[in-house]
Design goal:
Layout lengths: L5 E6 L7 H16 L3 E6 L5 H7 L3 H18 L7 H11 L10 H8 L1 H16 L4 E3 L16 H6 L9 H9 L4 E5 L2 E3 L5 E3 L5 H12 L3 E6 L16 E3 L1 E2 L1 H9 L10 H6 L4 E5 L8 E3 L12 E14 L9 H11 L4 E6 L3 E7 L7 H11 L4 E14 L7 H4 L11 E6 L5 E7 L3 H13 L8 E4 H5 L2 H6 L3 H4 L1 H10 L3 E5 H12 L6 E5 L6 H9 L3 E4 L2 H10 L8 E3 L6 H10 L2 E4 L3 H5 L1 H4 L3 E5 L6 E2 L20 H11 L2 E6 L3 E2 L6 H13 L7 E3 L17 H14 L4 E4 L3 H4 L3 E13 L2 E6 L8 H5 L5 E3 L9 E6 L8 E8 L7 E4 L20 E5 L5
Parallel strand pairs: 1-2, 1-7, 2-4, 3-4, 7-10, 9-11, 19-36, 20-21, 20-29, 21-22, 22-23, 23-24, 24-26, 25-27, 26-28, 28-29, 31-33
Antiparallel strand pairs: 5-6, 8-18, 10-11, 12-14, 12-15, 13-14, 15-17, 16-17, 19-30, 30-31, 30-35, 32-35, 33-34
Length: 856
């Protein structure tokens, strides 16, 4: 059968795991045939099968594997008979071998090949039953591994490499097949001796690229569980954006830097023959996906993705003898070559060379590392640091925008950085850090570099936007969309104006109360001290966390009969009098410094107090909202606690609670359980502790389409803590989470201006009303409320009347083209808005309006 318009369709493990996914595969194949293509289908094994085959072999494991494939056959409505001979072969192969890890690499490769062989037998049967004539083919007939010097036996069998040139013999063989569709296995090949070899874990992508290159395919499509490459790992960073177009170099860099959606070795074969590579999702077959090609267009210098790779080993080699010594680098790198190890990053100085080894690219077992160290020790002093991670900023021409990255790089403040590398190809800026810090750093960097960017030619929707259902989209509409008419009516009389929605505050209270593991919630008064807001919080049964005597008195004036134990007073560098007045008022008082204890012991004699502990690790989107670490003024460090415990005991002062707070607007669900665990480890020094206060900082999404904090996950993590630490009461003290989304600013357009390529929209208030954008670089959604239903095509800076260059409420925002008098709405302004305002330039800040349920 002759048809030179080949399209190679690769389907990963999750894409072949169910009847529903095979229905999708059927429709994709039919669609490509209608488009005039001849499909070659490359399949992975069922999810987890390769792991089961690799971990250990027993009759029970083979039985489990057989049952899983038999169930899939039943779901697909096909006979399991075609696969049975393979199951019998597998049984004979592993007879007498209890653990495949103990087998030779040759036997290991042979065993692991059965996952793909079994799956493709069932896939061929299903497609034929669906009237799609399909031929099953053994990949090992056509993919022959290359013999490469210095590869170990393990690498030769388990991480083989094949040729990427066109193969006329393969084309003729496939042309001789009478069926329009061919299905074949990924991951497996053979060597020159005819033995089974593997292309490395995740190698099905590579198989597909090899076949595309050999056939001269018009297109390679990788179908997986995510619809393309993203600006970060969407499983870890829900706000990650789809990258719609990339060139081969960018895609190679992102894949090599840790993006799991595509094996790094997939790019070279398609780049060699300029074959477009499309990445799609079988879960979202109609989504745009990512297109990788040589003419992807130039989006200019920018960071396109942030990635991380765990499992990095650092090898530091030091000697004063290396300076100007001819051949030193050749000697040490020959040692790596001898041991079959591929070096990733390299950093040099006059007396030191440091390199990284990636476990995903090297079979780096303890024996090989020990042998490498011994070999290198002949030339230098060797230090090996394991459990590292790489965090990379990826994109073209990184060097030209380093000055723009400075604010984002503040996330590395107080981090241990082992190595910094700026790639010679100017495609990445990479940091080697401690492994446990990687995900948090990626999330913070992404928030800094991608916040507020709208969909454009390069960036598509977020992972959350792709997955959100229509009914969830409707439910996620912000309150100000639903109450637009009311807000426009209010704005007729007066702007600028803060508006707080009672219903939204009550909803946030109920959402937080769903975290059943928390015994008590204290609202941080500093977030918003509006009396109507505080009355709503009081009515919801929450306590109040105050940071000044003024806030304490404000609460006592509003609620004179309040139980004083609903007030938590946490002053910082306050005068002696405030501590005295706080204790006199009968509220909980927190100390976060040794000075009051050592200098004013009489104030606290025979009192019960809280201590604020510094975990020495802060979180948050900006250095000013990270409230832990040596560069933060808050909290007592652990090394001072033994001394404090002795002083307090002599003074008759009892510590009944420990408190920590690491930062603001945090979206990682394990933050508070980790903080609670840290405090529990400290509590043993203070026998009277009965309360653990894990602090606040619960984050909110920046726009309605962004995914917020997973409250259910917060509950799950805190439940685990409570289950193992039931002796403690658990408190949290959120402020912004309860009030940010409930507040908005209404501002009137005053003037429009254009300066070359820049548009400015002026409004009747600025940083005197909302200082967060200037102070923190924070993002607030801005919309033209007067023309909310029109398309937002106008790109402009939203600015105020304050005589400061920093008086910008929003940089380069897409809004509906405004006119003088239009009302702009600034969202997520309920927290740290009016309370931080000023009369700078003698301009009064926006006043406040409380929108009750009853207001029409």
């Amino acid at each position: 059968m002759e048809n030179d318009r080949w399209v190679v369709l690769k389907f990963g493990g999750t894409s072949v795991a169910s009847f529903e996914r095979w229905k999708t595969i059927k429709s994709i194949v039919e669609k490509r045939r209608k488009e005039g293509f001849r499909p070659l289908i490359v399949c992975s094994a069922l999810p987890g099968i390769s792991d089961e085959l690799e971990t250990g072999m027993s009759e029970k494991i083979i039985e489990t594997i057989s049952e899983r494939h038999e169930k899939l056959a039943k779901d697909l409505g096909v006979s399991f008979g075609d696969a049975l001979p393979l199951i019998e072969e597998l049984k004979r192969l592993v007879a007498g071998t209890s653990l495949v890890r103990g087998a030779s690499p040759r036997a290991h490769a042979k065993v692991l090949s059965y996952g793909e062989l079994l799956l493709t037998k069932l896939g061929a049967a299903y497609l034929n039953k669906q009237d799609i004539p399909t031929a099953w083919c053994d990949a090992r007939l056509h993919l022959i591994s290359k013999e490469i010097a210095h590869l170990s036996e393990k690498q030769s069998y388990l991480s083989a490499v094949c040729d990427i040139e066109k193969d006329e013999a393969l084309k003729k063989y496939f042309d001789s097949e009478k069926t329009p569709v061919i299905i074949i296995q990924g991951f497996i090949a053979k060597n020159r001796d005819g033995e089974t070899v593997l292309l490395g874990r995740g190698g099905s992508d590579v198989s597909a690229a090899y076949f595309a290159a050999k056939l001269g395919a018009e297109r390679l499509e990788i179908w997986t569980d995510v619809p393309g490459m993203f600006t970060a790992n969407p499983q870890k960073v829900p706000s990650a954006r789809l990258l719609k177009f990339l060139d081969y170099d960018e895609a190679q860099e992102i894949a090599s830097a840790g993006a799991k959606v595509l094996h790094p070795r997939t790019i070279a074969p398609v780049r060699r023959h300029k074959i477009p590579l499309h990445i799609y999702s079988t879960a979202h077959p109609d989504a745009f996906g990512t297109i990788i090609r040589h003419d992807a267009g130039d989006a200019g210098a920018q960071v396109k993705a942030i990635s991380s790779r765990r499992g990095i080993t650092l090898v530091s080699m030091e000697t004063v003898d290396m300076w100007q010594q001819v051949g030193f680098l050749a000697d040490i790198f020959a040692c790596f070559k001898k041991h079959g190890l591929s070096v990733d990053l390299v950093s040099t100085s006059e007396t030191n060379v440091t390199v990284t080894l990636d476990h995903s690219a090297n079979l780096l077992d303890a024996d090989r590392l020990k042998s490498l160290t011994a070999g290198l020790s002949e030339f230098c002093r060797v230090r090996v640091i394991e459990s590292c991670a790489i965090v990379s900023l990826l994109g073209k021409n990184i060097r030209s925008i380093l000055h723009h990255l400075t604010p984002a790089l503040e996330v590395f403040d107080e981090q241990k950085i082992y190595l910094i590398s700026q790639a010679a190809n100017d495609l990445n800026l990479t940091f080697v850090v401690e492994e446990e810090e990687a995900i948090r750093l990626v999330s913070q960097l992404h928030g800094q570099l991608f916040k507020g960017r709208k969909n454009d030619k390069l960036l598509g929707p977020t992972w959350h936007e792709l997955n959100i259902k229509e009914e969830e989209k409707a439910a996620a509409r912000p309150w100000w969309q639903k109450k637009r008419a009311v807000l426009l009516k209010i704005a007729k009389d007066k702007t600028p104006l803060y508006v707080y929605d009672e219903e939204t505050i009550e909803g946030a209270i109920q959402k937080l109360k769903s975290v059943k593991s928390v015994d008590k919630i204290f609202y941080a008064v500093k977030a918003n001290s509006n009396p109507d807001v505080l009355k709503t919080i009081f009515k919801g049964g929450l306590g109040f966390e105050c940071v000044s005597l003024g806030e304490v008195n404000h609460i006592l004036k509003l609620f004179p009969k309040i139980n004083r134990k609903r007030i938590l007073f946490t002053p910082n560098f306050a005068p002696k009098m405030e501590y005295e007045k706080g204790l006199e008022a009968g509220v909980f008082v927190t100390l976060d410094n040794t000075y009051p204890i050592t200098q004013w012991p009489g104030v606290f004699k025979n009192h019960e107090i809280f201590l604020r502990i510094d975990p020495e690790h802060g979180e948050g989107h900006h250095k000013y909202v990270r409230t832990a670490g040596s560069k933060s003024k808050f909290g007592i460090i652990a090394s001072q606690l033994d001394e404090i415990a002795g002083i307090l005991k002599k003074n008759g002062t009892r510590v009944i609670g420990l408190h920590a707070h690491v930062g603001s607007n945090i979206l990682t669900a394990d933050t508070w359980s980790d903080t609670a665990l840290f405090l529990a480890s400290i509590a043993r020094r203070f026998p009277d502790v009965k309360i653990i206060d894990a602090g606040g900082g619960l984050g909110v999404p920046e726009t309605a389409s962004h995914r917020g904090l997973d409250i259910a996950a917060v509950q799950d993590n805190l439940k685990k803590f409570k289950d193992s630490h039931s002796k403690y009461k658990l408190w949290i003290e959120p402020g912004r989470f309860l009030i940010a989304e409930a507040g908005a600013i209404l501002a009137r357009v005053t003037q429009l201006k254009q300066k070359r390529d820049y548009n400015y929209v002026g409004v009747d208030t600025g940083m005197n009303t909302l200082i967060r954008p200037a102070l923190y670089g924070s993002y607030h959604e801005i919309v033209n409320l007067s023309r909310l239903d029109d398309e937002a095509t106008h790109l402009a800076n939203i600015v105020g009347p304050i005589c400061e260059s920093g008086d910008i409420l929003g940089h380069e925002r897409h809004i509906v083209t405004p006119r003088e008098g239009d009302i702009l709405l600034i969202g997520n302004a309920g927290a740290y808005g009016r309370v931080m305002s000023s009369n700078y330039n003698m301009r009064p800040p926006a006043e406040e309006h409380f929108l009750k349920h009853t207001q029409p």
